[in-house]
């Protein structure tokens, strides 16, 4: 932008806008608001008048509830120094402290979001498609549950997905930087397709007679699980990165919610379609696994609707920066020569050049993170929280509920009902969790979530150790559904959000990558040991997870501060004090 245009821009936005609004309806917000003070356009609020806006304190990643750290009821303070004003009860904050930021959504942004979350659908599908059809799969692969050694092999088949996820998590940012975000997303879908084909082909060789723990079919199934795991790990990095880069800061939380919602909805679809009455039957389950190809094919067919990330282009050559300008104008719904586009592009280029707005793959400084004592404590908080998320036993409920419930005398009809209802609960709670974060904050949610999961485990233990009674099946249903629902309130979303809130923006990428890698590794360990653990402990198989969650409550009390309404600097200071 020319010097005279910059001078004109600063002059035009050096005084506050005088237009007032009586009411604004927020996309994605359930909160009732009193008439607000002033309305700023995206240009005014983010790249003009509010250059030091708290919105700039948000990492360029799309996670559910991300924006609720600095906004409340779509209101944002004028500066970081006044951040707390937006969280004061209505009527107590002065009108010159708070503004409302409108949430303009364009058709190209909706299309880009839809195309990106097709990867999320494939991730959710592959994360949950080994549970309800497991009996038919194991029978066809010669891994019948009556043989102890085959239980260990089946546990490895399920858990090895997480080793692939660990690899994908580490490779995702590298691929996204080398080939662009669009290229990375298409590569992820292609990888999902290859993995789905390998898994479906595992039914062809089969085993002559059980037990046959390492047949060619079993090996092919393991290979397919690793491949889809790689794609899933990359999805957890690239999709939030892409959505965060194509959206304005105050929309990142909403797009993060869409990312999570598509994942859990796909998990629900996988559990429902995999029940024996539908596609979880011998000879049919390979076609069930091939359904994974549909969203991949759709993404390739409509790839012209998937623009490259303007932020990625802005940090490259001058020619690519021109392309970024055109894409940015398309996503924002404004002319390409508008001041809004020029100023946002200038902001992206400045951030990329200074290294202050890094995202996964943009030269993260691992050494800097590990050498700084205050940041090491932030890393400890994030890694511990994401490891405990898996050691809560949540994925054992999603992956092995059919196995351990049946083994403890729960009727097959009840097992199927539990598999469906727990995923329905997971979807429903995902719709409300951002509102809860906005109103209650992160710390109360994670505490209440942990307590609820502990109580649910004790109730489940009572049900599993008292099989045969009339009240056993209803109690098991309530326990498992309650366990998953409590997880969705806090232990599900909050651990993934913390790395974007407790690290400075230039280090949020590497902090997120290390934390996510620890999560995938913990997921692998828990999945690998659960079936042998369940064989040993029987109905008490979930009690060890309750003790882990109990110890975690102590950790939360002493180490995890509330992040809502605070700057990153304030959060880091509280963690260290």
Question: Could you characterize the architecture of this molecule?
Answer:
The protein is mainly alpha-helical and 577 residues long. The chain is built from 23 helices and four strands. The protein has helices at residues 3-12, 42-48, 107-128, 134-141, 148-201, 216-246, 252-273, 285-290, 293-301, 310-314, 318-332, 339-354, 366-371, 373-391, 394-407, 412-440, 442-464, 472-491, 493-497, 499-502, 508-537, 543-559, 568-576; strands at 39-40, 71-72, 75-77, 98-101. It has a four-stranded mixed sheet with strand order 1-4-3-2. Strand 2 (71-72) and strand 3 (75-77) form a beta hairpin. Helix 14 (373-391) packs parallel to helix 21 (508-537). The protein is globular and about 70 Å long.
């Amino acid at each position: 932008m020319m010097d005279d245009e910059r001078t004109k821009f600063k002059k035009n936005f050096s005084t506050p806008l005088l237009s007032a609004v009586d009411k604004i309806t927020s996309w994605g917000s359930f909160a009732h608001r009193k008439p607000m003070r002033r309305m700023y356009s995206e240009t005014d609020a983010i790249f003009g008048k509010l250059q030091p806006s708290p919105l700039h304190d948000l990492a360029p990643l799309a996670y559910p509830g991300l924006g609720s750290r600095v906004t409340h009821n779509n209101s944002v303070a004028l500066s970081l120094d006044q951040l707390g004003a937006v969280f004061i009860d209505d009527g107590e904050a002065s009108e010159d402290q708070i503004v409302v930021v409108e949430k303009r959504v364009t058709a190209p942004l909706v299309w880009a979001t839809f195309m990106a979350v097709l990867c999320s659908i494939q991730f959710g599908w592959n994360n949950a498609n080994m549970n309800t059809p497991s009996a038919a799969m194991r029978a066809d692969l010669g891994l019948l549950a009556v043989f102890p050694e085959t239980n260990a092999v089946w546990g490895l088949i399920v858990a090895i997905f997480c080793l692939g996820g660990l690899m994908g998590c580490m490779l995702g940012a590298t691929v996204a930087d080398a080939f662009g975000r669009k290229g990375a997303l298409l590569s992820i879908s292609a990888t999902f397709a290859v993995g789905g084909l390998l898994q479906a082909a595992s039914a062809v060789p089969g085993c002559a007679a059980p037990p046959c723990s390492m047949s060619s079919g079993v090996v092919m199934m393991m290979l397919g699980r690793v491949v889809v795991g790689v794609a899933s790990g990359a999805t957890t990095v690239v999709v939030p990165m892409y959505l965060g880069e194509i959206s304005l800061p105050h929309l990142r939380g909403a797009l993060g919610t869409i990312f999570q919602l598509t994942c859990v909805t796909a998990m629900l679809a996988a559990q429902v379609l995999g029940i024996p009455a539908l596609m979880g039957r011998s000879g049919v389950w390979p076609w069930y696994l091939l359904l994974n190809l549909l969203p991949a094919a759709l993404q390739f067919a409509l790839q012209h609707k998937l623009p490259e990330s303007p932020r990625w282009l802005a940090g490259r050559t001058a020619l690519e920066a021109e392309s970024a300008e055109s894409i940015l104008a398309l996503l924002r719904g404004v002319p390409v020569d508008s001041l809004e586009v020029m100023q946002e592009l200038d902001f992206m280029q400045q951030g990329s050049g200074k290294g202050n707005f890094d995202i996964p793959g943009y030269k993260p400084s691992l050494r800097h993170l590990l050498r700084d004592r205050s940041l090491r404590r932030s890393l400890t908080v994030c890694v511990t929280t994401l490891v405990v998320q898996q050691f809560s036993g949540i994925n054992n409920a999603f992956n092995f509920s059919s196995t351990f419930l049946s083994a403890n005398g729960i009727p097959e009809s009840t097992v199927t009902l539990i598999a469906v209802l727990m995923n329905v609960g997971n979807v429903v709670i995902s719709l409300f969790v951002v509102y809860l974060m906005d109103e209650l904050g992160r710390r109360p949610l994670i505490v209440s979530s942990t307590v609820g999961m502990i109580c649910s485990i004790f109730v489940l233990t009572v049900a599993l150790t008292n099989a045969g009674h009339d009240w056993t099946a209803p109690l098991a249903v309530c326990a498992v559904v309650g366990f998953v629902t409590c997880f969705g309130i806090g232990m599900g979303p909050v651990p993934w959000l913390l790395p974007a809130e407790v690290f400075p923006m230039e280090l949020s990428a590497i902090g997120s990558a290390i934390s996510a890698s620890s999560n995938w590794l913990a997921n692998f360990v828990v999945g690998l040991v659960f079936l042998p653990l369940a064989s040993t402990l029987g109905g008490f198989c979930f009690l060890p997870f309750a003790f882990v969650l109990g110890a975690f409550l102590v950790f939360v009390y002493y180490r995890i501060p509330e992040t809502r309404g605070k700057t990153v600097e304030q959060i880091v200071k509280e963690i260290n004090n």
